[in-house]
Porin (Runella salmonicolor), 458 residues
Amino acid sequence: MKKLFLVLIFAASYAHSYAQGSTDYGSGMKFNINPEGTKYVRLITWSQIWARSVQNNPGTLVNGTPQDKTFDVGGRRLRMLAMAQVSSRFMVLAHFGVNNQSFLNGGAAGTSGTGGYGAGKKPGLFFHDFWSEYTVIPAINAETKKPNKFTMNIGAGLHYVMGISRMTMSSTLNYLAVDAPIFNWALIENSDQFARQYGIFAKGKAGKFEYRLALNKPFATNGTATEGVAVDNNGQSKAALAGYLEYEFFDRESNALPFKVGTYVGTKKVFNVGAGFYSQKEGTQSLKNGIVQKHAINLLALDAFLDMPIGKKEKNAAITMYSGYFNYNFGPNYLRNIGIMNIGTIDPKFTDKKALAGAGNARPMMGTGSIFYTQAGILLPKTSDKPKIRVQPFAAYTSKKFEALSKTGSYFDLGSNFFIDGHHAKITLQYSTRPIYTAKDVIDGNKGEFIVQFQTYL
């Protein structure tokens, strides 16, 4: 029995490494706590450093100085994950780190300025995930030694089973583009903790289907209700139900961990279609003639993911494609503006046309309405038996049609991955554009942002 589970554990670890485009790392930093290796602790650590040149929104101050363009270097993600298989059926996972630290912000809580123990220094670690999981029905039948057609794991804690879409539960280790489009985490840092909530979940396989279902308790929000515009205010928050179901046409993907792969770098043949949802009663509020109205949050998505080798096997070329349609309902005219690692603040003296989204690189990120997103990339063929660098150009397009804005916004991304050793060591270049809304029915041109990301992962 122990040998059987050893095989399963090794297979899961290998599959996770295999997804990163390099077989040199095996199961990574794994420390056995029994001679058979069926009980172990595995550590994963990674960093994503961004060097950026940002065309700021009109009316932006950077550390008190008006700036049209800003260059900076910062930490997008600095993280560590530890998982412990403490028995053949029981696993504990902890994922912690810091995010979005620039030369101005992302540092210690409760401080201001950049001198001494300033806001831009000494960020506090926090948990992204911390859950326990129990295998109810394993992948392999213990008696027949054959695969079970139906499997199930249940768990509880601060977790990532948030439904909606594949991208909502994406791994940050192996994106095709430089990052997720962010709107995929529709509740980010409002009623969740960095895309996680406390709850109980179930996940598993049913033939070629993979399923995930969760009952969560959203974090409390207390935005001030306004006339005709929904804001995040759930008071004593109601429970939320989330789920995602996908069909796997070709290779089966590992679901040992909830993190979905963005590109397999030519190592698997995958075509999946999926659908997901998130629903919470009385998640937002607005005023109607001065009377408080409560609104449900109902989020739906349909998506498809394709990743497969093309051409001659020895050339190891591959294509990766992902498309998703997101239908979000947060209540009337709900709109949220976000800028990733935004170092800008609004200049109160600026009297020209200001961006509705605010300062820096902020943009209309998510709201009541619909979003279409698609991305595609091609892993170029090998030019030798042992290429020093693999190249993977990509492009992405986003269309956002929100109730609060009369004009549909178009967003473009163009770039390339340069794999030094799969996702374990890669450099990504990306140029992105965003529309500048100066009124709900006026788009006054576009602004750009150039990012170079340096990623290491073990």
User: Anything to note?
Assistant: DSSP finds one helix and 23 strands in the chain. The helical segments are 2-18. The radius of gyration is 23 Å. The first strand starts at residue 29 and ends at 32.
